[in-house]
Amino acid sequence: MRFGQSKWFSLGAAVVLLGSLLAGCGSGSDSKANEGSGSGGSDGQQINLRISWWGSQDRNDRTLKVIKMYESQHPNIKITPEFLSWDGYWQKLATEAAGKNLPDIIQMDYAYIDQYASKQLIAPLDPFIEAKVLDVSDIDANYLDSGKIDGKLYGINLGANSIAIAYDPEMFKEAGVPEPPADGMSWDDFAAMLKKLKDNLPKGTYAINNMDDMSGFKHYLRENGTWVYNDAGDGLGYTDDKYLTWYFDYFNKLREAGVVPNEETELGVKGLEDSLIVHKKAAMQSFNSNQLVALASAAGRPLKLMMYPTLPGGKPGHFIKPSQFFSLYSGSKHQKEAVDFINYFTNDLEANKVLAAERGVPVPTKIREALYPNLSPAEKTTFDYVESVGKVAGPINPPDPELSPKVGDLFTQIQQAVNYGKTTPEQAAKQFRDQASQDLKGQ
Amino acid sequence: MSNPAKTAVVRQPDPAVTAAGKRMTSLKSNLIGYAFISPWLIGFLVFIIGPMIASAYLSLTHYDMLTAAKWAGFGNYAKLFGEDDRFYTALKVTFIFAVISVPLKLAFALIIATMFNGKHRGIGIYRTVYYIPSIVGGSVAIAVMWKQLFGDEGAVNGILQLFGVQGTNWVTNPDTALSTLILLVIWQFGSPMLIFLAGLKQIPGEIYEAAIVDGANRFQKYARITLPLLTPVIFFNLVMQMIDAFMAFTQSFLVTAGGPLDRTLFYAVYLYQTAFGHFEMGYASAMAWVLLFIVAAVTLLFFRSASTWVHYESEGGR
Fold it and tell me: Most exposed residue of A178, A208, A296, B252, measured as fewest CB within 10 angstroms of its CB?
């Protein structure tokens, strides 16, 4: 009997423990449900929005400040920010998508927008333009169209961008080499200039980083009137391996001549702020134009921009790339409010003064013009660069297919094998074709 | 529960009924036990068994996280073994890494533990200092520091230069990258060292005294007494470190990112790239299950071999 009593007591205690545990879970989900129904109510009630972006600390600070400004103008709206680095961002977003719990406003990249739109995770913005929530009247079609898929607008461009080559005018003077023309030069002239730079700079200094990455190859393909991916996104878009062979061969020669660094040195660079040009170990550096402010401040001296090399008689290689978009989650309960914030972010001058074109050159004409006089020299250089690229740029290619990250990895692997001298440009071009074609076919 | 009326009449207990009764009582008392560990049990079911079942299911599908999983049968496994060259690269790298790093790490841990087993002044401080890499070793900061130390202009090359040797970038050179990571892992020898130390402390002093009386020298004492009596601890450390080595991730991911030329593509890093780089969750789940079976098979091999070399004193010297 005594034993029985204590047994029942302990069982009871366990049940209480278990019960409280379950109650804990239960109340958690309850409060969530309340929150959902509460915020779903009429005007004047507290509305919670979630927004996510990737980026540097500088971007986080600026964006948070704009959120505060918006909240003070809209007391009934509370915005919860989620920000990460680029690497972790897409993993978190995919996890949230799997849990049907995406943020209302999603910073989106050109490489992913097609995937998210085709799976209807982000909503078209056109109804909000018609309803005058979102104002795009001041945005050039050039800048707007990159956010369109099948004629519908799935993302608002937050900044215009293009690939670019930064150079240090002082080092050019030192080497006695005339500065390159801003609108670029032919691949042959470019190589000749690099060699001259190398010969006249102090020993151990390179002319430029080894820029044989995929964005350079894409540029070269465009100049040849073709593209990496076919329109269906299930195979390569170019048919002749001569392009990739030529491309790797071009940089092989430069590397053998010591004009660009070997792969050990190239891979040893820890991020943009650690680039060779920052340490005065190279006179030039390839990158994206919106990174100039960061690069110039890391280098601590003024840098100028030039366009990528051109192909005589070829098509324009440059295109204006949307640095990123804001997109709307299709499952958002407060779509109108979310779009209103996107509109504020895009069109409000005060907000854009705080943002200071850190995401790339703003797309509304009025904002650009209003910001220009107060820009820092590096920012001015970026604005001018994007404007001059806009004059010669060709139309942007369709967004990369869903399986492109794998192809990007493959390119990097093969590029490394070439740069380490483990394979020849011919073999590399063929290997890339075989493997990429298979990867793009999918499972 | 047994029928009381029946037990009252039939004095001789029915074996079947008693067995059932016993089972019932033991079930009851077990139930109480389960109730007490229920917080842990629920966590185990929800956070370990649940995801395992989910991953077993996903390994038979194509799943990109954005859309519902599509049934694929054993397609992922077939592709893994049949077509995927990088899978074999990753296996090779992981095996080389495990086979080289684990014995070296254990040997190092044992030597240091033996050194610290005596009574010296400030021995506690030394033990702590040598344990520190184990605590901080897995951290991001150490990985970044390692990259710096073995970089083009790192401390290692600086020291080499004093001797007139022109170093390379050890981390990005395909021939030295894996060795750099192995070195990083060996450096984190603290936890096996502590376990060795505990094992050494447990060896009774009388045995050594008896050996001294018999005229054994230091080497004989170590080889004939210390090592045999330490084999259970060595075995434990070996199994644990081997499992750790197969699951190694941080070092490669942060220092070399699997490169250069896939020379440091640990299995776990390739799995991560597949899952979170290419969003092939089904394929990655299949890879995870294959890893589980490989680790289980290797561990089983160790346990099988244990009877030939591990010496358990308590079980009549088996």
Answer: A178
Average pLDDT of every residue of chain B: 86
pLDDT attached to residue A24 = 44
ipTM entry? 0.76
In chain B, what residues touch A10 (CB-CB under 8 Å)? 32, 35-36
* Distance between A294 CA and the closest CA of chain B, angstroms: 21
pLDDT digits (tens, 9 = 90+) for A8-49: 555 555 555 555 544 444 443 333 333 333 334 445 688 999
Chain A residues touching B62 at Cβ < 8 A:
443
Instruction: Between A367 and A86, name the one with better pLDDT.
Output: A367
A286 contacts A260 by C-beta, under 8 angstroms: no
Nearest CA-CA partner of B166 in B179, B178, B183, B153 = B153
A186 forms beta bridges with: A310
Query: Six-digit token pair at B219?
Result: 């080497």
**Assigned token pair, B45:** 């079911």
Quote the CA–CA distance of B223 and A388 in Å, as a whole number: 78
> Cβ atoms within 10 A of the Cβ of A443, count?
14
User: Nearest Cα to B279, choosing from A112, A233, A236?
Assistant: A112
pLDDT, tens only, B200-224: 988 888 888 888 888 888 888 888 8
- As given in the structure block, the two tokens for residue A130 are 């018609």
Beta carbons within 8 Å of B35's beta carbon, 6+ residues apart: A10, A11, A14, A15, A17, A18
Closest chain A C-alpha to B65 CA, distance in angstroms: 5
> What percentage of chain B exceeds 90 in pLDDT?
42
Q: For residue B62, what is the nearest residue in chain A, using CA coordinates? A: A443
User: In this structure, are residues A177 and A200 in contact, taking their beta carbons and an 8 Å threshold?
Assistant: yes
Q: Which amino acid is at A71?
A: E
Q: What is the DSSP letter of A178?
A: P
Instruction: Tell me which of B38, B55, B65, B271 to substitute to probe the interface with A (most A C-beta atoms closer than 10 Å).
Output: B65
Chain A contact for B259 (CB, 8 A cutoff): yes
Q: What single-letter DSSP state applies at residue A307?
A: P
Cβ <8 Å between A405 and B65: no
Is residue A188 within 8 A of residue A250, CB to CB? The reply is no
Sign of CA dihedral B223, B226, B232, B233: negative
DSSP class of A110: T
Closest to A284 (Cα-Cα) out of A414, A205, A396, A166:
A166
